[in-house]
Structure formats: structure tokens, C-alpha cells
Amino acid sequence: MRLTKTLLLAVLALLFAAATPAFARSKMDQLQANQYAWSGAIRWGDFEGALSLIEPGYREAHPVSDLELKRFEQVQITAYRERSSSADKKGGVALRDIEIGVMNRHTQAERTVRYREEWRWDEATKNWWLMSGMPDLWEGE
Prior knowledge:
Shape: globular
Radius of gyration: 21 Å
Number of strands: 4
Helix content: 40-55%
Largest sheet: 4 strands, antiparallel
Strand order of the largest sheet: 1-2-3-4
CATH class: Alpha Beta
CATH topology: Nuclear Transport Factor 2, Chain: A
Distance between the termini: 76 Å
Number of domains: 1
Order of helices and strands: HHHHEEEE
Number of helices: 4
């Protein structure tokens, strides 16, 4: 009986140890999926879709007006490049430095904008949210 309990505890410990890295991987896989969805939405001009990946509290505190959305329609994204990234799995924070190629649809003038994405893990919703808001594609204009 004692051997059975010990064996059962050993098996449970192994299962727990095996499940923990799998959870960490799935959490990081979800981060990559959200970052991919975000970069795809920005790259293809789906700015309204991109808004859905911004943390709801941030989105409420910093609403994007219809006028601002119309402004986004005036540009074409020509490039979206990750320059560097880091992630703190335990702290639930990830940063990505991005370089965005932006072309004005009316003037055909192209420029490059740098943007830092800050992603945070929300334990309550089990989701990664963007905390840095929409990129400023008019930097200094």
C-alpha cells in the first residue's frame, strides 16, 4: 500500500512537472499568435481589427476617434519589421521594438516610424494584451 502511494505521488509529480513547461509554452505561443495578429492587422490596414488586441482598460482610457481612424486610411503600411524583442515569462511582460514603413496615399511620400509594443499577460482573461496603444504614424507631423 505504501509503495502504491509513493508510486502514485511520483507519477503525479512527474505529470505536474511535465504540465508546467507545456503551460509556459502555450502562454508564449499565445503571445506570438497575438503579436502575429497585431502585426498582420497593422500591415494590412485593419486598424479597427488591431484595436481589439489593445487592453480593454487602455482602450477605454484612450479611445480612438472616427477622425483618427479616417487618418489611418490615408496611409499604406509598406513594411513592419521587428528590430528586437524580449519577454519576461514570469513577470508577464513582453516588449518588441518595431520599424514601420508608412506611405501617404495622397503624396506617395514614404517614411519610417519606430514603435515599441508593450504586451502584458492578464491572468484573469488568460490573454496577452497590447498596452502601448496604436502606433503614432505621424510622429512629429
